[in-house]
C-alpha cells in the first residue's frame, strides 16, 4: 500500500474531528438556504404587511417584525450580506497579507524590517475606529464621485464597498505575520536552493514553491478571519454605520429588534433568531478553523 500524502493524512485527521465535521455541515446548510431560499420562499423579505409583531408560527417560522415582514426570510436575506462581507473582506485580507508577508519574509534584511515595522504601526491603531472614520468621512465623497460618473446604481452601494475594503484592509496584519514566519523557514530549504541554482527568479520561487507550501496555514487562518469580519460588520450595523435599509444583515436585524424592546412587551424573537443564527455561524466557523488547524498540524497523529 502506497503511503498517504500529507494532504490525505490531514483530510483523514479532519474527518475524525466531530465538531469540525458538524460545523462544516451546518455552514453548508446555511449557504444552501441562502442560495435556494430566494427562489422558493413564499415571503418577500422586503414586503410590508399588517401582521406586525406576530410570534413564531407555522406561517412565519421566526415571526414578523415591526413592518410585518417575515423574519425567517429577513434572516436569510441578511445572511447574504453578512456572509458576503465576511468572504470578500477575508479575500482582501488574504491577497494583501499573503503578498506582504511573502515579500517581507523572502527578501529579508532592511526591506523586511521596514515592512514589518509598518505592520507594527498599523497594529497600534484601533482597527474598528479606523473603519468607522473611513466610512463616515469618505463614503459621501465616493457616492458623489460615482454619481458624477453616472454610476447611480453603484453609488447606492458606496457603504457596502467601504465595508468590503475597510474591513479587509484592517484584517490582513496577522495574516502577513503568519505568512512571513512560514516564508522565513521555507526560504532556506533545499528545494528553494535547487530552484535558485536552476536560475529561477524570486517571483517564480515565491509563486511556484513558497506560497503553495504556506497554503494550508493560510486557509486555516482564513476560516478564522471570516467570523471576525462578520462580527465587525454586525457591530457596525448595530451602531447604524453598516448596512442601510432596505438591505439587511444580521447586525442590522439585531439592531432593529433592540429598537422594539420596551418594558411593556418584549418581542423576543426579533433578537433571539437573528442573534442565534449569527452566534451559531460564528461558532461553526471557529470550530471549522480549529479542525483545519489540527488537521494540518504536522505534530498531529496519523
Q: What is the tally of beta strands?
A: 0
| Molecular shape | globular
The residue fraction in helices comes out at: over 70%
Domain module count: 1
Return Rg in Å.
23 Å
The DSSP helix count reads 13
- CATH T-level topology: MetI-like fold
CATH superfamily: MetI-like
Query: How is the biggest beta sheet arranged?
Result: none
Q: How would you describe this structure to a colleague?
A:
By secondary structure, the protein is mostly helical. The protein has one domain (84-295): Orthogonal Bundle (MetI-like fold), CATH 1.10.3720.10. 72% of the residues lie in helices and 0% in strands. It is built from 13 helices and no strands. The protein has helices spanning 6-15, 18-40, 71-107, 109-123, 127-148, 152-155, 158-169, 173-186, 190-197, 202-213, 215-238, 250-259, 269-295. Helix 1 (6-15) packs antiparallel against helix 13 and helix 5 (127-148) packs antiparallel against helix 7. The mean pLDDT is 83.
Amino acid at each position: 500500500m502506497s503511503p498517504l500524502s500529507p494532504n490525505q493524512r490531514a483530510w483523514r485527521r479532519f474527518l475524525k474531528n466531530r465538531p469540525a465535521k458538524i460545523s462544516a455541515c451546518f455552514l453548508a446548510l446555511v449557504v444552501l438556504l441562502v442560495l435556494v431560499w430566494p427562489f422558493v420562499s413564499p415571503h418577500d423579505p422586503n414586503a410590508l404587511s399588517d401582521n406586525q409583531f406576530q410570534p413564531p408560527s407555522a406561517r412565519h417560522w421566526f415571526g414578523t417584525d415591526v413592518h410585518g415582514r417575515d423574519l425567517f426570510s429577513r434572516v436569510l436575506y441578511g445572511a447574504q450580506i453578512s456572509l458576503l462581507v465576511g468572504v470578500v473582506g477575508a479575500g482582501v485580507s488574504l491577497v494583501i497579507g499573503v503578498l506582504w508577508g511573502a515579500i517581507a519574509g523572502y527578501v529579508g534584511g532592511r526591506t523586511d524590517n521596514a515592512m514589518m515595522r509598518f505592520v507594527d504601526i498599523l497594529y497600534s491603531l484601533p482597527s474598528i475606529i479606523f473603519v468607522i472614520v473611513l466610512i463616515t468621512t469618505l463614503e459621501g465623497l465616493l457616492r458623489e464621485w460615482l454619481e458624477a460618473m453616472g454610476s447611480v446604481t453603484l453609488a447606492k452601494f458606496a457603504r457596502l464597498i467601504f465595508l468590503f475594503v475597510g474591513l479587509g484592509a484592517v484584517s490582513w496584519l496577522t495574516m502577513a505575520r503568519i505568512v512571513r514566519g512560514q516564508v522565513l523557514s521555507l526560504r532556506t530549504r533545499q528545494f528553494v536552493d535547487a530552484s535558485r541554482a536552476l536560475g529561477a527568479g524570486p517571483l517564480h520561487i515565491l509563486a511556484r514553491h513558497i506560497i503553495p507550501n504556506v497554503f494550508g496555514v493560510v486557509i486555516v487562518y482564513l476560516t478564522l478571519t471570516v467570523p471576525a469580519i462578520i462580527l465587525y460588520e454586525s457591530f457596525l450595523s448595530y451602531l447604524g454605520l453598516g448596512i442601510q435599509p432596505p438591505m439587511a444583515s444580521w447586525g442590522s436585524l439585531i439592531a432593529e429588534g433592540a429598537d422594539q424592546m420596551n418594558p411593556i412587551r418584549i418581542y423576543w424573537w426579533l433578537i433571539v433568531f437573528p442573534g442565534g443564527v449569527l452566534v451559531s455561524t460564528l461558532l461553526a466557523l471557529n470550530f471549522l478553523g480549529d479542525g483545519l488547524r489540527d488537521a494540518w498540524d504536522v505534530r498531529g497523529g496519523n
